[in-house]
Amino acid sequence: MRAKTKQHMFWLAIVVGAASSFTASLVWAQAATPADPVAQYRAMFGDDNPADLWVMRGQDLWQKPRGPKNVALAKTCDLGMGVGKIKGAYAHMPRYFADTGKVQDLETRLLTCMVRDQGLDRKAILKNRFGDGDRKSDLEALSAYVVDASKGIPISLPMTHPEEKRAYAMGKAIFYYRAGTHDFSCATCHGQSGKRIRLQDLPDLANANPEAQKTYTTWPAYRVSQGEVRTMEWRLGSCFRQMRFPKLKYGSEVAIDLTMFLAKNAEGGEMAAPGLKR
Amino acid sequence: MADPMRIRARLTGDTVEVKVLMAHPMETGLRKDSSGKLIPAHYIETVKATCKGKDVLTADWGPAVSKNPFLAFRFKGAAKGDKVTITWKDTAGESRTDDAVVS
Fold first, then answer.
1. Cβ of A48 and B21 within 8 Å?
2. Does the distance separating the beta carbons of B19 and A13 come in below 8 Å?
3. ipTM above 0.85, yes or no
4. What are the start-end ranges of the H helices in A177-218?
């Protein structure tokens, strides 16, 4: 009898879950096209996002002393807002860092802090740059944590240092650079509005516009199809693969410059990452 | 060893809605890695939720449940301030217990 009641309650939980998602989808149906199951999925989650699990792990990694030098990133790492300050840091990146003499995006900056300040092995970190199940990525967790602290803050880049301007100009050039076996460029897919590939709407990322804002501000994101949080470095690498370009080197100047161009076009948009994507 | 769950329990009227996010690979045992070897099965088998010493939900799960599972359910009979405790056990013998206070 007891077992039966338990099972009954279990099914009740599922039925209730289904009923509430049904109401949610009714509300949602007016806002998006029926061909957008991802929006439906988002509605079911409500305020919850599996990326929160990465944020929690990232917080731990940020605050606990680690590495051979046994220091916490929270005590040593400067992401542009001062040592240990993460609020709004992502909304003002990529930017020029005087100590490294380079324009850096979040991932490369975190890498600098982990290698230089904590004494961790660069190769070991990069080996796990993209997590998969039990093989967890510290970079993805830390990125999720830092990005989460910029929620609601509008993107604005300093863009004062000549290196930053150079990175933007280079990023723009790369965006329009056609190459590879398919003679593709980023602009081939993302140069105009209202286009799609299969059922994927393609945002216009070539100019400053709301589409570019909406896209950039929702990365990094939890990719449902992969069950992992992916960062901008991953997103760009995947685009390069889809364009049949040579493999994009993680943390390379090309990746950072492109990010700079995309971030500039998204200026004014409020950060809403980690997002939730198909 | 396993990462913590994120649990929210909210009371509306006389019903508590519990939302749980669990961090787990939920390997089915059918996937292969890049070298062609089978990845061994590793998934959550049982989930139990208790409140004030009573089971409010027990579930037997299998490999069909997604990676990083999200579980939402409702139950009656709890008040604000009560503790909801969730425990999962997986095929590798690992388990994890976390709790949340009903708000």
1. yes
2. no
3. no
4. 186-190, 210-217
Kindly identify which residue of chain B lies nearest to residue A131, measuring between CA atoms: B25
Domains of chain A, residue spans: 3-31, 51-148, 162-277
Tell me the C-alpha distance between A106 and A111, whole Å.
9
Q: Which of residues 9-38 of B touch A (CB under 8 A)?
A: 19, 21, 23, 25, 27
Range of the domain at B76: 6-101
Task: Give domain A51-148's CATH number out of 3.30.1540.10, 1.10.760.10, 3.20.20.370, 3.40.50.2300.
Answer: 1.10.760.10
Q: How many domains is chain B partitioned into structurally?
A: 1
Q: H or E element: which one contains A254?
A: helix A253-265
Tell me how far apart the alpha carbons of residues A278 and B37 are, in angstroms, rounded to a whole number: 27
CATH class for the domain made up of A162-277: mainly alpha
Active site residue A189: no
Give residue A43's pLDDT.
79
pTM summary value: 0.80
- Nearest Cα residue to A256 out of A148, A51, A97: A97
A6 touches chain B (CB under 8 A): yes
Report which secondary-structure segment, H or E, holds A200. Answer: strand A200-202
Q: What confidence score (pLDDT) does residue A238 get?
A: 93
Averaged over successive runs of 10 residues, the pLDDT of chain A (278 residues) comes to 45 42 40 61 79 91 92 91 92 93 94 93 91 85 94 92 94 94 92 85 91 93 90 94 93 94 94 89
